[in-house]
Amino acid sequence: MVETVVNFYGINYYCLNHVNLTNTGKNQFYVYIIFSIEKLYLRRREKYTLQRRNLLRVFLLSIFTFAFGWIIKRESDNTIMQRSSSREFTRESESDTSEIKLLTEQLADIVTVNVKNYFYVGESDWTNAINRAIEFIKMIVDAPTGNKPLLFFPYNPDSYKTTSTIVIPHGVNILMESPILYMGTDGADILRVGKAKTHAYSENYKLQVIRNIKTWNSECSGIVIYNSNQSNIEIVQTVGSKYGCTLFGDTKGFAYNFITLQLLNDNQTHLRLKGLNGGWVNENVFLNGRFANTSFNKTRARIAVLMESEGRINANVFYKPSFEIGSFADSGVETIPIIINPGRDNRFYDCRSEGNGTILARLLGISFNNSFSLTYANSGMVIDDRGDPLMGNYLATNTLQEVTRTIYDSGFLSTKSYISKSGTPSEYKIGDLFSIPVSSKMGKEDFKPFLSSSTTIEINEKYINVDDSRGLGRIVTSSVCKDFKVYVELFNQNEPIRAYIIPYDIVGNQLMHTDETGEEYVKAYGCYKVGEFRGSYYLSNLDKKGRVFRVGSKVNSFAIVFVRNSTGMKISSVKIEQILNTSKTYNDSVESSYSPFDWMNNGIFVEGIPKSGKWEKGQILTERYPVIGGYSSYVVLMGGDFITKIPTFGKIGKIE
Predict the structure, then answer these.
(1) Which of 55, 108, 273, 571 is the most exposed place for a label (fewest CB within 10 A)?
(2) pLDDT, tens digit, for every residue of 232-272?
(3) Where exactly are the structural domains of the chain?
(4) Helix or strand or coil: residue 592?
């Protein structure tokens, strides 16, 4: 006997597919619809009885039977709708089996399972009723239907009291208008959706749970969701657990979901994002959420959002979370709104931190490019980056005027690139970037303002593509600011490119890998010393998310050269930013990006170091008549006019 519930103009019809087997292998196949008006029937010991009849029900029933060809008859206290042409068939008949299967699938496509319909009179709580509803809905999930069934928890003023964990499979939409109130023993999750190593797509959940006896002594969660993808999830409330809500990427991913958060209260860790067994949690959007500890266990450590995995939690975005978990001073223990261990490229926008300690976030392990911003918050909020300080994690508050400053933006290179010289050989101008062959022998004097015809180049409206024989670059001054972030907009973001960083001292001499103390001149996560360009630093995986790096105190300028990876360099634009330290003052004339070919635009040619004239700090002067043993160009180290102040110059690119 298989039961399906169909709602027809407010009336629930309980459809029973009944197969009566006989000793001879012959069977009679009947399809019954036993109906009742919502909330007016009583189910006791697997029997359905009709409590009330009325004219409206009979009228609607008549329309239904006329349209679909059923007959009406009475059996005991039930009104039965039966197909008018029952027939015999054998158990082995494939056509008859297909008919049963088809009918079940058609009914399953419109099924809504109301947990109240599975509650027996005399039961003390809802555990068995909910599990009976789930067992039925599993049959619908296993059928290859087009629509997902809905497990419905209608409003219940007394909540849905349970004494053991409720487990709902993937493939089900869930709507809870009242919470599950867990009355069981410590150590059990209240609600689990899905299971490890399987995944679900395009589902809708509205979930809420409360733990009657609040406890943080066992590793248990209020809500656990496994491997959900491209779904809409609403957490109305989760109260009183060790982990309020745990989102698992176990073996597979938990990704691309839109998650609305309301109340997460009196949990030790309110929201946990966890990757297990190679699984990942990424590209999810979280909206709002009040993370609070209003009454329970305020003397123990508390966390609002915890990200922990084997390294695959990235690119999750939180909009306007409100953290009210209490302060260190109030409880004598640490309370930290956000812990990432590890993760990358996660964003927390417009956080509210009310009554908490001074640490907004703690970054552990290899956590980089995570950013945070505050609206309403205590003064002096900080992030505690216990990993590499070059990871690019930063906090922007309403008290900071700026965190980064753009010093170079190429714009769309395809609109600024052209053939600067036709014929043989032809030459290509790529925006205001210089070109240099990729080789261990090449140095600063090999920078060229164009690409020669020997280079394979593609220019279209969306990107430029250069082969692996040439790199495109830019020179950046670093006399004061030492921290930078570089972004590359690519036509195909799945093909990040590489860059080489070549440091120079104050007079323009190239600095090799380490100084006299062994300190490296360029530091970054994933940065390596290589032999290209007579000794440079290799920075991998550049894309629009950006990479942060730091140059040493002796580095007055550096060249950054962009080079294709194994699949190409389809590059749209380049941007370079300074990461500012608010304790320092920056001078626009000092900290800037410049091309070694600015002389092409301003015509600054000199014959040796100037002896007269007015010169500004940072200007590049090109030698008109270079000779062996001389220098290709000069840089103004200190401005002056030779009258009120004598300028000083540095030499660039000795010619050998």
Answers:
(1) 55
(2) 999 999 999 999 999 999 999 999 999 999 999 999 999 99
(3) 2-107, 185-400, 409-594, 599-654
(4) coil
